[in-house]
Amino acid sequence: MKHVKSWAAYTLTGFAMLAGAPAAAAGYPERPVKMIVAYGAGSGADTIARILGDQLAVNLKQSVVIENMPGVGGALGTVAAARAAADGYTLLLAPTTLTVSPHMDAEPKYDAVKDFAPIMRVAVLPMVLVAGANSRLSSWEDLVREAKKRPGELNYATSGKGSPSHLEVAMLARQADIDVKDVPYRTGSQALTDLVSGEVAFYFPVLPAAAQQIKAGRMKALAIGTKKRSSQLPDVRTLAEILNQPDYEATVWYGLLAPIGTPQAVVDKLAAETAKILAMPSIQEKIANTGSEVAPLDLPEFSKFIAAENKKWGTLVRELGLQR
Q: Which domain range does residue 98 map to?
């Protein structure tokens, strides 16, 4: 009988929680909402968070406070968000590294799938494959041919081991069955300088970092990572075109998440408001001015996307032996 009473009490409690969830969402938020960014002020994630947060505060009629928590390669703020109360009052605006960083550690500090409830992908920052203006490389096909002629000799700049500029090239190299050598740099500006001078053969940075150099004729754009051609470089082919893979995408993405266990009604409300915001021409313009593009994925799509990204990068990080 004790088991029956215990089960009955649990069931009644569960029904009460379910019944209370919509009511809780109806009154949400009743106090300021905190949005954690695990990187410093002025970073790409911070900029997107502030654009979204300012308008979210208007829509929710409540303050949205951006809290920068940089450190440990983004793990400090991400772990803080994962461990926060799952009540909708702590959110996380995370970039691609959310699904990369845990796999770099022998003992992961968080799990991108199990510790977070995805709300919506917000934007993507295009990546562009570039070579110096005087390079023999003028296309992706040139790069592949050169790499096959000199296996292991063609080098490329990266922003560090496990960075998007490293992993995206590694992924492409596996597809093309080529062996290229990564050269890690402390700063993107030094990588660009060495690319122009010919110290490295190619680089795959985010578009804003290279756009001016391309337009000035100091670099050549070999391909762009967005699914559709960029309005900034309309003559540059996409990797999706080149590889004949319509869904191929090489970008840095930004998404909004909450701690796992956040009431579904609250998550749904945040997703609905975020969708409204991303449909606003003024917000689209603000995000475009940062070099990023509005690229919403709704809650079910973003959940699948996070799971796929987590699996893809986890597999690659292990294959490359990048675990610390």
A: 2-125+252-320
